[in-house]
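Case study 2.
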Amino acid sequence: MKWADIQDIAIALEEAHPDADTINLRFTDLHRWVCALPDFDDDPAKSNEKILEAIQMAWIDERD
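Prediction:
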């Protein structure tokens, strides 16, 4: 997965962290969790607030 794979990342995060508070999630934690996903293979420095926010919103949608 790459940073652009927003929906795939959201699904993987829901599987890895089903009890996480997706609404009050700190972007530092989100970044760390994405980079720790087993299928994630991208440069950690390529993320930004816009990407992390999109992942957070997709994760919230995935949970609903």
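Helices lie at 6-16, 27-36, 49-63.
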